Amino acid sequence: MKLNKFVSIGIACAMLLGGAVSASAAPAAAQNPSHTAVKEAKAQHKQAKASQQAEQLAQLQKTASGLGIATEGKTAKELRAAIQEKHKALAEQKRADALAKRKAEAEKLGISTQGKTAQELAKEIQAKKQEQKASKQAKKQQPKTSKQTKKSS
Q1: How far apart are CA 8 and CA 111, in angstroms?
Q2: Could you tell me where the Basic and acidic residues compositional bias lies (predicted)?
Q3: Which of 25, 84, 88, 125 ranks highest by number of CB atoms within 10 Å?
Q4: Between 102 and 16, the higher pLDDT residue
Q5: Could you tell me the pTM of the whole model?
């Protein structure tokens, strides 16, 4: 009798352990995808990355051609550098044009332009224009007051 109990307990333990081993093996297989699936995922990632790089290159080429930059045979990195260089040159040209315009306006108003920045000239021009405006308004007010004094006399 004792022997039957030990045998039945042993069989039950073996069945439990066997079930546990097979149950733990199933998720491991699911967690480790096949070699071909890994290769396919890598290929898809590589293709998506290449597609994204091609789109970026096309956008850079469009921007560069709009700025008058030759795009033939240039990489994305070279195009970015050329575009940045062109933007810097355009910004510098814009600053130079603004300074020249302010200098011309300052000279018309009789303001000295030597050694002054565009911002300094802009402030002086604005101050001079306000001064002239106030002067014109004072001249307009002066005849009105003189007419009133003539009528009252």
Answers
A1: 112
A2: 97-108, 121-134
A3: 125
A4: 102
A5: 0.54
